[in-house]
């Protein structure tokens, strides 16, 4: 899961990288992007973060929804 914002240049760069490698990544992962423009984005990401993080922020989740690793 990726936290992103339209005003964030590193977010755009990461998104382009993930899109370029989409075929490889989709073999093992489902990519979900949460944008700051969307309503209730914090309801999804806040429980996954130990403390507020900057963007882009990424978390890989276990199949049960627990964080395996983050970009912190």
Characterization of this structure:
Strands 2-1-3-4 form a 4-stranded mixed β-sheet. It is an alpha+beta fold. It is globular. The mean pLDDT is 85. The chain has 3 helices and 4 strands; from the N terminus they run E-H-H-E-H-E-E.
Outline of the structure:
By secondary structure, this protein is an alpha+beta fold. Helix content is 29%, strand content 21%.
SSE topology:
Layout: E1 2-4, H1 9-20, H2 22-25, E2 33-35, H3 41-45, E3 57-61, E4 67-70
Structural class designation: alpha+beta
Strand order of the largest sheet: 2-1-3-4
For the residues shown, what is the average pLDDT? 85
Distance between the first and last residues' Cα: 13 Å
Order of H and E elements: EHHEHEE
Q: How many strand elements? A: 4
Main sheet summary: 4 strands, mixed
What fraction, in percent, of the residue positions are helical? 25-40%
DSSP summary: helix tally: 3
Low-confidence stretches: none
C-alpha geometry:
globular
From the alpha-carbon coordinates, what is the Rg to the nearest angstrom?
A: 12 Å
Q: Strand fraction band?
A: 15-25%
């Amino acid at each position: 899961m990726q936290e992103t914002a339209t005003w964030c240049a590193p977010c755009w760069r990461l998104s382009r990288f993930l899109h370029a490698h989409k075929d490889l990544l989709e073999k093992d992962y489902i990519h979900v992007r949460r944008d700051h423009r969307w309503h209730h984005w914090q309801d999804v990401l806040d429980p996954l973060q130990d403390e507020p993080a900057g963007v882009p922020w990424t978390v890989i989740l276990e199949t049960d929804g627990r964080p395996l690793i983050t970009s912190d």
